[in-house]
Amino acid sequence: MSEQSTSRDRGSVENTVAPSKDTVTVERAAAESGRGGGGLMSGSFGRNLGLVVALLLICAAGVVTAGDRFASVDNLLTVLRFASALGVVAIGMTFVITGGGIDLSVGAIVALCSVWATTFATQTMATDSHWIVMVFAALAVGAGCGLVNGVVIAYGKVVPFITTLAMLAAARGLAEIISERRTQIVTVDGFKDFFAADILGVPLLVIIFVLVSIGGWVLLNRTTFGRRTLAVGGNPEAARLAGINVNRHTVMLYVLVGLCCGLAALMLVSRTTTGSSTHGTLWELDAIAAVVIGGTLLTGGRGTIVGTVVGVLIFATLGNVFTLNNQDTSTQAVAKGLIIVVAVLLQQRLARNANST
Amino acid sequence: MNDAPLLTMRGIVKRFPGVLALGGVELEVRAGEVHCLLGQNGAGKSTLIKVLSASYQPDEGEILWEGKPVVLSTPQASMDLGISTIYQELDLVPDLSVAENIFLGHELSTAGFSQRGETIRRTRELLARLGHSEIQPTRSVGRLSPAAQQIVSMARALSQDTRLLILDEPSAVLDQGEVDNLFRVIRDLTAEGVAVVYISHRLEEIRQIGDRITVLKDGSTVATGLAVDQTPTSDLIKLMTGRSIEYVFPPRGDAGPPTGEPILEVIGLELPGVFTGVDLSVRAGEIVGLAGLVGAGRSEILETLYGARRPSAGTVRVAGKELRRGSVPAAVKAGVGLAPEERKSQGLLLDQAIYSNITVSTMGRFSRFGLLDSRAERKRSAELTESLDVRPAGVDRLVRLLSGGNQQKVVLARWLLRECRVLLLDEPTRGVDVGARAEIYTLVRSLADSGVAVVVVSSEVEEVLGLSDRVLVVREGRVVHEGPAGEIDESRVLDLVMEGKVA
Predict the structure, then answer these.
(1) Which of B171, B190, B172, B191 is closest to B182 using CA atoms?
(2) Half-sphere exposure of B155 toward its Cβ, with a 13 Å CA cutoff?
(3) The whole model's pTM is what?
(4) Is residue A115 part of a domain?
(5) Does residue A38 belong to any structural domain of this protein?
(6) How many Cβ contacts (< 8 angstroms) between chains A and B?
(7) Considering the domain B262-335+420-499, what is its CATH architecture?
(8) How distant is the Cα of B471 from the closest Cα of chain A, in angstroms?
(9) CB-based contact B308:B488 (threshold 8 Å)
């Protein structure tokens, strides 16, 4: 992701900086010293600095206003545990947005997966055989919804915004029909025990989030899938003419985010020990906000998993600080809006400075 | 007329971080003349234009307008003086109508309500003045041909009382007839006292339309105010490059035309409304050129046999194996590569590194279980860029930063790496400077010599004839002539594309 760092803000300048022989040596020297290993660090560092500053400011506010109640290992793990499910969705969203799309239906898919995994029928089957049935149910439903989104977008040529808006309505409606708008309690002990487990004091949910983040980073930055995602998002026509199957790749991106929703639904079900058609309400906006303040371009072609993770942490920490100070969610929402704007502004400035050296 | 020249630029210097884009440019333009700006890609022409249109502020130097110093601080200030620029990449809004585009930013309105009738009437007048009354003012610009879009851009310039018109490579998107029309319009304008700054790579055009020439090299003026009719071409090329040759085509093989089984066979290919009954066969080591006017269906033929468009009839075979219709991955898999016409929008991932542009079609080769070995990618790309002499070196550089010629080399490197058997080149030297052109010709020939079957489409007849072994002339979607390149000359080809006399 770092290699794309310099592009957009300098757009106007670059067209004219075509090389003449005299400047070649200068540029080559600059290229050799600036790029390579060290350049990678400085590029992403510049972009993420604004985010880290924002996160630190929120933490500072937490320490000042809530003291030890904020700055404790227990509280940290609580924040992470609450952030983990949304975080997994945001990782999936990073891929879709980097690939030039958007998915408004993630929250609704999470609800549908949570309901499907906890119906009486599924839970009976899980009790009779193995709790893993619930896991498969959630993942299959998530992937299925993603597949429908992807096929309609790639082959039906309906714009992602509309397709996933339709899925948002339909999936949540279906979740309400299946659950009859009732909260479904999880009774399968194997499932509850597994997801409630700790490993060396770290909740499994947090570990899942960490693993998904690492997996997402590798997938985006070190694999052909990630490289194709950047190509498809950056210039779909050029990608197509280079021989990439753009339609198939688009479908895979939406299936991927669908799978993330299924996994997130399982995490949410285990944390609340319920499945409900109200799960994941407005998560699409939280996920998109985290991705965008993280530095992924909404127009596609550039994406950063690290940025998304920090973005998720910013919102989670913010919520925590407000809760510890007994503020209601409305104040929190206002602050969230401010943070989005400030973080993006800060980030643009810093990125520009980092690039113009 | 005022004695002072309309525009004088003295000692203009523009620096970008790490680069001296302009290092002392001198330019003097008189009212009523066509002043040609010559220079290779990267010589500073675009930067100079952007200084004039006030996109950039110069770091040093002065600009005089009718002898008085002026500061072009904003694009509006530049427009107020009467400077209009028509860029190479047309800057029109495709979804707005012709009339709306022409009056964009200075709409005719009363109390905020646009005067539709008046706008359309004025648009008709402007289009008629440019000799293109057939363009509908209410049509959306995106549905016009590139040539018509350029006329709309010019109408926009004229709608604001232009005194200095800057044309950046206007002929790049035009065919011969359209170029002639453009020249007629330019002559009309200069007769009215408008000054034109004309930028082109094509020396023959400059001979036709230009009055005086200024040559830029490496950001500096190396010669200015040369009279067109008294300066031999060889001098101009020497000034631009330090070389004294225009087009150098590599020699064809001594062995005569290649024989053996054709690698690429196209039979009865048809795309309704575009072309029909196209037969084509290319042997290993052979270069086949497609000549014809813009819009005759040349590019569409290439795109169809590459699978980017789905034909209604006909077959495409590569090495005897029939390709699935309308599937690019199938064509790529069979060893076909395309260097598309619109390099920037169709060929390249501009905001990505050179190496990932080169390996994008061969990623599988650098990956194990989907994991990319980017060290190997960089290493292989560096070998290729070095052998193709892509400048500046460094495969982590963004493709956006390269000049046209070097970008084209990156596209070619992609297919070299792929070791493709059939290479389709659509306008391979558009926007490429004279020096780099020769390199690309040599490269294409050496690819053919290594056994690749090459198909070249170009608007420049000279290029098709010079580069190819065999030439097909396309007119209105049909092949009207086929034969060895050596047995046909430029005027005969022009005859065929205009008249369509079947040989």
Answers:
(1) B171
(2) 33
(3) 0.73
(4) yes
(5) no
(6) 154
(7) 3-Layer(aba) Sandwich (3.40)
(8) 25
(9) no
Across the strands, what pairs with B216? Answer: B221
Closest CB to A24 among B41, B370, B392 = B392
Q: Which residues of chain A have pLDDT under 70?
A: 1-47, 347-348, 350-357
Residue B335 near residue B264, CB atoms below 8 Å: no
Confirm whether A27 is domain-assigned: no
**Min Cα separation A26/chain B (Å):** 7
Give B-chain residues touching A244 at CB under 8 angstroms.
Answer: 329, 360-361
Supply B4's token pair: 């002072």
Contact A16 B20 (CB under 8 A): no
Domain enclosing residue A261, as ranges: 51-355
Check pLDDT > 70 for residue B247. no
The CB density around residue A331, as the number of other CB atoms within 10 Å, is 11
Structure-token match 């039906």, residue found: A156
Question: Which of B349, B400, B426 is the best residue to mutate to test the A interface, defined by the most A CB atoms within 10 Å of its own CB?
Answer: B349
Query: Any CB–CB contact under 8 A between A144 and chain B?
Result: no
**By mean pLDDT, which of B11-15, B107-111, B485-489 is the weakest?**
B107-111
Q: Which of A165-174, B249-258, B345-354 has the lowest mean pLDDT?
A: B249-258
Q: Is A4 on the interface with B (CB under 8 A)?
A: yes
Interface membership of A20 toward B (CB under 8 Å): yes
Domain of residue A63, CATH code: 1.10.3470
Is the pLDDT score of B35 beyond 90?
Answer: yes
Candidates A31, A218, A231; nearest CB to B394: A31
Of the candidates B450, B449, B497, B442, the one whose C-alpha atom is nearest the C-alpha of residue B475 is B497
pLDDT for B89 equals 66
Q: What is the DSSP code (8-state) at residue B97? A: B
Q: What is the dihedral of CA B288, B290, B291, B294, to 10 degrees?
A: -150
Number of folded domains in chain A?
A: 1
The reported pLDDT for the residue numbered B357 is 94
Closest residue of chain B to A240, computed from CA coordinates = B328
Q: How confident is the model at residue B41 (pLDDT cuts 50, 70, 90)?
A: low
Using CA atoms of A114, A117, A119, A122 in order, give the dihedral in degrees to the nearest 10. 180
A37 falls within a domain = no
Q: Give the CA angle between residues B395, B397, B403 to the nearest 5°.
A: 105
